[in-house]
Design goal:
Layout (H helix, E strand, L loop, with lengths): L12 H25 L3 H12 L3 E3 L4 E5 L4 E3 L2 E3 L4 E11 L6 E7 L2 E4 L7 E4 L2 E6 L8 E11 L1 E14 L6 E5 L4 E2 L5 E6 L7 E6 L2 E2 L6 E3 L5 E4 L10 E7 L2 E4 L7 E12 L3 E3 L2 E5 L3 E11 L3 E8 L2 E7 L2 E5 L7 E9 L6 E11 L3 H7 L5 H36 L3 H9 L55 H6 L3
Parallel strand pairs: 2-11, 13-21, 23-29
Antiparallel strand pairs: 1-4, 3-9, 5-6, 5-10, 6-7, 8-9, 10-11, 12-14, 14-18, 15-16, 15-19, 17-18, 19-20, 21-24, 22-23, 24-27, 25-26, 25-28, 28-29
The structure holds 2-acetamido-2-deoxy-beta-D-glucopyranose (8 copies).
One 2-acetamido-2-deoxy-beta-D-glucopyranose binds next to loops.
Length: about 475
Amino acid sequence: MGQDAFMEPFGDTLGVFQCKIYLLLFDIVANCLLLRFKLSVSSYEIWKKGACSGLKVTVPSHTVHGVRGQALYLPVHYGFHTPASDIQIIWLFERPHTMPKYLLGSVNKSVVPDLEYQHKFTMMPPNASLLINPLQFPDEGNYIVKVNIQGNGTLSASQKIQVTVDDPITKPVVQIHPPSGAVEYVGNMTLTCHVEGGTRLAYQWLKNGRPVHTSSTYSFSPQNNTLHIAPVTKEDIGNYSCLVRNPVSEMESDIIMPIIYYGPYGLQVNSDKGLKVGEVFTVDLGEAILFDCSADSHPPNTYSWIRRTDNTTYIIKHGPRLEVASEKVAQKTMDYVCCAYNNITGRQDETHFTVIITSVGLEKLAQKGKSLSPLASITGISLFLIISMCLLFLWKKYQPYKVIKQKLEGRPETEYRKAQTFSGHEDALDDFGIYEFVAFPDASGVSRIPSRSVPVSDCVSGQDLHSTVYEVIQHIPAQQQDHPE
Ligand SMILES: *[C@@H]1O[C@H](CO)[C@@H](O)[C@H](O)[C@H]1NC(C)=O
Ligand SMILES: *[C@@H]1O[C@H](CO)[C@@H](O)[C@H](O)[C@H]1NC(C)=O
Ligand SMILES: *[C@@H]1O[C@H](CO)[C@@H](O)[C@H](O)[C@H]1NC(C)=O
Ligand SMILES: *[C@@H]1O[C@H](CO)[C@@H](O)[C@H](O)[C@H]1NC(C)=O
Ligand SMILES: *[C@@H]1O[C@H](CO)[C@@H](O)[C@H](O)[C@H]1NC(C)=O
Ligand SMILES: *[C@@H]1O[C@H](CO)[C@@H](O)[C@H](O)[C@H]1NC(C)=O
Ligand SMILES: *[C@@H]1O[C@H](CO)[C@@H](O)[C@H](O)[C@H]1NC(C)=O
Ligand SMILES: *[C@@H]1O[C@H](CO)[C@@H](O)[C@H](O)[C@H]1NC(C)=O
C-alpha cells in the first residue's frame, strides 16, 4: 500500500480481461518454446504473473540523445493495481556484445548503488527515474529499468531506453576552391564544409536556403561534406551554405557566394532621347543624344564604340556611354557599333545601330509620321475645318445665285405653289442663300408668284399676293438692279 502516487488509470477490468485472453494464447506458444528450448520455467511464471496484474512501467521515449559532459535524466513512470508491501527498482546497463552491468537498485526508499558508479547515477525512490551526471561517451548504450512489486505474490515489469552521447556541433566553415573564381563552362568549383567539433555529423548543402541535390553538374563526397560543381555556369551563382546536424545540435555556416565569370549576355543600346525603331534611332538636328550600351557580364564588360563610314571603321570611344551631337555631324545617316568585351571570359558581343538626323519642320513631321502629338493633330483638324468652312461659305455665296437665276426663267407657276407647300424651316442650311425683293402689279388679276429663290415663308398662300413679300436681302445690289419690277 502507500504507493497511490504512482497509480495510473490503466488497469481497468476490460483491459485486464483482454490481457488475460492474449496471455492464454501466448501461453500456448510459450509453453511449446519452453519445452523446445528447455528454458527456465520459474522465470517465465514470474513474468506471467506481472503481465496481467496491472503493473505497468512506461518511458516517454525509448531513445534519448545526451550531450557529453551534461546531466541526462531518464524519466520512468510505473503503476499497479494490487496492494504492495515492497517496491523494488533496479537499473541495469548493457552495451552491445557485453554483459549487462548493475548500476543501482532500491527497495522502498533505500538505494543500494554499485559502488563503482555511485557518484554517477542517482535515483530518488519511489521515483524510478534515473539521473546520469555527467554523461560521458562510455555511458552510451541501453539502460534497463526493472520494477518488482511484492504483495500478494510478486509482479515484475521492465523497460529499455537507448542512450546516445554526442558533442554539440561548432559552427561550420565553408572553403571554396578556387577562391579566385571560375569561368563559366570552363572552370570547376569545390565547396568544402569544415566543422571543428561535433560527433555523428550529417552534412547538407543549401543554395538560397533550399537543399542542393545531385545533378549533372553537382556531385557530393561520400560524407556530403564536399560539393563539387563541374562545370560552373551562371545559374550556379547564389548564396551557398553548409548545414550540419547531429542528434543534439544543428549549425549552419555563413553564406558564401562563389565567384563565377560569365557574359556578356543581352547586349543592347538605349538612348536618353530620340526615337528607337529596331536598330534605327532618329534624332532631331541640333539635338545631342546620349547612347548607353549595356550587357550582363561578370566582371563588367569593357565597351568600345565604333563608327562605320562607307568601308572604313574606326573606334571613336571606350566606355559604356557615347554622346552624339547632331549638329557636328556632316552626314544624315550614321552607322555605329557598340562592342562589349569580357576580359576574363574572353568573350565579346556587338550590336549595330543607325542614327538618322532629321531636320526640324515639315521634314520632321513627315519623319515622325504616326508619332504626331495630339496637340498637332487637333491644330491640323481645326485648321482644316476653318478652311473648309470658308470655302463652303464662298461657294455658297457665288455659285447658287447663278443656278437660281437660270431656273427662274423657265419655271411654271405650279412649281411655285408646290414649293410653298413644303417650304419651311426644316433646315438652317435652307436659309443660307440669296434673297430678293419682288413686287407684283395688280393688272391682270392673275396671281403671279414672284420669283423666289429658297423658301422662306410658310404663310405666303394666305397672304395678299399684291403686297410686297418680305425677303432678306443678301448684299448683291448690282444684280438686283437688273431684276424687272
Ligand atoms: C517497505 O515498506 C513496507 C510498508 O511501507 C514494509 O512493510 C516493508 O517491510 C518495507 N520493506 C523494506 C525492505 O524495508
Ligand atoms: C521523478 O523525479 C523527477 C525529478 O527528479 C520529477 O521531474 C518527476 O516528475 C518525478 N516522477 C514522478 C513520477 O514523480
Ligand atoms: C491473494 O491472491 C489469491 C489468489 O491469487 C487470492 O485468492 C487472495 O484473495 C489474494 N489476497 C489478497 C489479500 O488480495
Ligand atoms: C572540371 O571537371 C571536369 C570533370 O570533372 C574535368 O574533366 C575538367 O578537367 C575539370 N576542369 C578543371 C579546369 O579542373
Ligand atoms: C544572397 O544574400 C544577399 C545578402 O547576403 C542578398 O542580398 C541576396 O538577395 C541573396 N540572394 C539570393 C538569391 O537569395
Ligand atoms: C548525402 O546527401 C544525400 C541527399 O543529398 C543523402 O541522400 C545521403 O544519404 C547523404 N549521405 C550521407 C553520408 O550523409
Ligand atoms: C569599298 O571598298 C571596295 C573595295 O574594298 C571598293 O571597291 C568600294 O568602292 C568601296 N566603297 C566605297 C563606298 O568606298
Ligand atoms: C579587365 O578589365 C577591367 C576593367 O573592366 C580591368 O580593371 C582589369 O584589369 C582587366 N583585367 C585584365 C586581365 O585585363
